[in-house]
Amino acid sequence: MKSVFNVQKTIREVILKILDNYTLEQLNKIPEGFSNNLIWNAGHCLSVQQALVYKLSGLPGNISEEFMAKYKKGTKPEGDVSQDEVDEIKRLLLSTLKQVESDFEKGIFVNYMEYSTSIGYTLKDIEGALDFNNYHEGLHTGVMMSIKKFV
Q1: Exposed/middle/buried for 16, CB within 10 Å: 0-12, 13-18, 19+?
Q2: Helix (H, G, I), strand (E, B) or coil at 92
Q3: pLDDT band at 1 (very low <50, low <70, confident <90, very high)
Q4: Cα-to-chain-centroid distance, residue 128
Q5: Rounded Cα distance, 82 and 42, in Å
Q6: I need a surface site. Which of 3, 24, 31, 146 has the fewest CB within 10 A?
């Protein structure tokens, strides 16, 4: 599983680099032809990771329910986020990564509720969830790279 966590670390570093290199206005801009923006994609990665890993394991997540609801699947930006929220997302990108790896090593993910993703892939255990999460975050990192060209 070390490679799974290394891949996620790399993805998160790419996301953080994007967030560090754009202004608040650029992070909030939704380019024509897109339904979201740079900062929403970063927040969405956090929300989905917590849902796939913790919620489906029957455990409390490490981010607020309000945050989860704002960035969950099926949402879109409902207004500009503040610099404080950008800073919080950047902090969470690092802290949740470390927490998941630590919790996995401690063996706290004992139960897992099977879940079929929107692409038809069924998650059956924590290892599958962590693998799929990397796919999901990689997909949204690609979207962010596309958005960068238009902000």
Answers
A1: middle
A2: helix
A3: confident
A4: 16
A5: 14
A6: 3
Residues β-bridged to residue 75: none
DSSP secondary structure, 29-49, as one string: ---TT-SS-HHHHHHHHHHHH
Residues 6+ apart with CB under 8 A from 92: 46, 62, 63
Both tokens assigned to 14: 């790419």
Buried b (16+ CB within 10 A) or exposed e, 84-95: ebbebbbebbee
pLDDT band at 112 (very low <50, low <70, confident <90, very high): very high
Q: Where are the alpha helices (DSSP H) in the chain?
A: 2-20, 24-28, 38-53, 65-71, 83-106, 126-148
For the whole model, what pTM was predicted? 0.96
CA dist., res. 71 & res. 81, Å (int): 12
pLDDT value at 142 more than 90: yes
